Amino acid sequence: MIDEILIFAALGILAGLLAGMFGIGGGLVIVPVLIGTFISLGFDSSVIVHLSIGTAISCIIFTGLASTNAHRKKESIDFAHFKPVATGIIFGALCGALFAVQIEGTFLKLSIAAFVFIVGIQILFDIQIYSKRIVPSKPKSIFAGGVIGFLSSILGIGGGTFSVPYFRASGLQLTSSIGTSAACGVPIAIFGTIGYIIAGINVSELPNLSLGYIYLPALLGVSVTSIFAAKYGADIAHYLSQSVLKRLMASWFFIISIYMFLI
Asked: Would you call 64 helix, strand, or coil by DSSP?
């Protein structure tokens, strides 16, 4: 149990740093490491992937709050862009969690690995998702939030992979896009967590100390340390150039993708 707690605490430090640096909520760190940890703990293979995603989403509540607060202090959150997107996220994240548990675990894991690799390519070569600027409107932003929340909840991430490019296309600078994206991770995490609790409440294969698809020891261990680390990640983001941030993000995504394919 001590080894397990140390793993979760170390994971929280890494997740918090990356959440603050990239506005990714830490999910792209937490999910693959939790899958490997849960396999080593001998959990039922039929629930490991969904348990990892649900637990990662719940951890992002705390990493997201810490990261958001750090970016708020640096005035890098654009609340005018955030509010309508967050409205759509509420519905999208809840529906995404309920949908994800219907997908077979191995297929879901490989899909996440492929997705992360594609995102790494997009960032490394600066491939623009949109050919021209988006002119935001309330309906567009709510719809975008719904899509971001739905996909993020399925993948167990804070949404930065989707919301950073969206806010960039909406005209925000990279630092503001990261800060606003970090804020979006909070409603994604809250309503995604609710969905994973509801979906797993009567699943008998889940281990003890689980609340639905949330493994409580991992939630506690990761969250406690990630809260403190997120501030330092945000500090790092404001000291690095945009080109360095892009290379670091791409490198991390490639590492995670390869790991997900192999485990």
From this structure: helix
Higher pLDDT, residue 242 or 109: 109
Extract the tokens encoding 181: 């994206």
Angle between helices 160-169 and 79-100 (to 10 degrees): 150
Tell me phi and psi for residue 84, to 5 degrees.
-70, -35
Residue of 238, 234, 232, 192 lying closest to 213 (CA atoms): 192
CB-count burial class (<10 Å; 0-12, 13-18, 19+) for 41: middle
What H or E segment, with its residue span, contains residue 201?
none
Average pLDDT, the chain: 85
Q: Does 198 score more than 90 pLDDT?
A: yes
Query: Is the pLDDT reported for residue 77 higher than 70?
Result: yes
* Contact predicate 30/221, CB 8 Å: no
Cα–Cα distance measured from residue 47 to residue 52, given in angstroms and rounded to the nearest whole number: 8
Indicate whether 25 pLDDT > 60: no
211 secondary structure, DSSP code: E
Portion of the chain with pLDDT greater than 90, in percent = 32
